[in-house]
Write a structure and sequence with these properties.
The chain is an alpha+beta fold. The protein contains 10 helices and 12 strands. It has one domain: DD-peptidase/beta-lactamase superfamily (Beta-lactamase, 3-Layer(aba) Sandwich), CATH 3.40.710. The protein is 30% helix and 16% strand. The strands form 3 sheets. The chain has an 8-stranded antiparallel β-sheet, with helices on both faces. A two-stranded antiparallel ribbon has the order 3-4. The chain has a two-stranded antiparallel ribbon with strand order 5-6. Helix 1 runs antiparallel to helix 10, helix 2 packs parallel to helix 6 and helix 2 packs across helix 7. 48% of the residues are buried. Its EC number is 3.-.-.-. Pfam families: Beta-lactamase.
Length: 335
């Protein structure tokens, strides 16, 4: 987009944010040069703390992109291959997973495994969806009790079905192969090379002062009982709008992975008609443009961030409410 178009888009996003009483942050920049960078609403309603550009927000499924990159980093090392059967790493754990499921199937949501958090069930963000106490889900191995026992739904490779549990399995595989904890692995292989100094997997029950509390849309009730106490392979990192801009530029410049590998990660493999997008490995891609997109929605979280490789423009909308980002993203798409 030329500068005049970006300035018009910035005005549209800002005006929509004001009209919608938006709570969160918006960032629009051209190759790192800000066109719009503004925060709105409160990060902590009980204490009247406003959101700021430095506020860290939950990212929900945006984190799947980080997981996919960590997996590909291990593939680059030779520790894994795309066709590695996950059974060879899981051993006797998660015995209901078909022996034919590979790393590639999980990355591309074609594994056919049963999902512990099936989004086709039309869940509300206020639902209590976890079947184990949220405080127990603090590390990757602890998720075994949550994701086990969900029977295989379809043969591996047969069809695309967005799957949260599959990305927890990827985190398990990555952790066991790398010999370090998943959170440390992603920090080393993704956040550090990208210069994402404010990004990490925070505990919901001890959020630092610069992190936004997630609100459910029911009074001032928070999301602390609705999500794992610490995010993992399928979601839950905290980040800033500025870090996401650095992320996209670092990714496409080859600072996280070699550029040919990045091109494979972002290559569309499935058109998902009901979402109006295509899917690569951990990343959505616009239906008609090469723009990669990361989207997350959960209790107290809504976020979309996308990158235009032609103009190196990054657009991020992040909110600490479950629906706050979507009216702004609609305004973006209609502009």
């Amino acid at each position: 987009m030329p500068p005049t178009d970006l300035e018009s888009l910035a005005r549209t996003l800002h005006d929509t944010a004001v009209q919608q009483d938006f709570s969160g942050a918006i960032s629009l920049d051209a190759d790192g040069d800000a066109v719009l960078a503004q925060a709105y609403g409160l990060a902590d309603r009980a204490h009247g703390i406003p959101n700021a550009l430095e506020t860290r927000f939950g990212t929900a499924s945006v984190s799947k992109g980080f997981t996919a990159l960590a997996i590909h980093a291990l593939i680059e090392d030779g520790s894994l291959e795309l066709d590695t059967p996950v059974r060879s790493v899981l051993g006797e754990d998660l015995s209901v997973i078909d022996d034919g499921v590979t790393v590639q199937h999980l990355l591309e949501h074609t594994s056919g495994i049963g999902d512990y958090l099936d989004e086709s069930d039309d869940l509300e963000s206020t639902d209590y969806v976890l079947t184990v106490p949220t405080h127990t889900l603090a590390n990757t191995e602890s998720f075994l009790s949550a994701i086990d026992g969900h029977p295989q739904v379809s043969p591996p490779g047969e069809r695309f079905a967005y799957n949260n549990g599959g990305y927890i399995v990827l985190a398990l595989v990555a952790e066991r192969v790398a010999g370090v904890g998943f959170h440390e692995l992603v920090a080393r292989r993704v956040f550090e090379p990208a210069g994402m100094t404010a990004t990490g997997y925070l505990r919901l029950d001890e959020l630092p002062g610069d992190a936004a509390v997630g609100y459910l849309g029911i009074g001032d009730r928070t999301n602390v009982l609705h999500l794992p106490v610490r995010g993992n392979g399928d979601g839950g990192a905290y980040t800033t709008a500025g870090d996401l801009s650095r992320f996209w530029r670092s990714l496409t410049d080859g600072r996280i992975l070699p550029q040919p590998t990045v091109a494979e990660v972002l290559r569309p493999r499935r058109t998902v008609e009901e979402e109006g997008m295509r899917y690569g490995r951990g990343f959505w891609i616009d239906l008609t443009k090469p723009d990669p997109i990361l989207i997350g929605g959960d209790a107290g979280v809504s976020i979309v961030t996308r990158f235009d490789p032609a103009t190196r423009t990054t657009m991020t909308i992040v909110s600490n409410t479950p629906d706050g980002a979507w009216p702004l993203y609609r305004a973006y798409r209609n502009s």
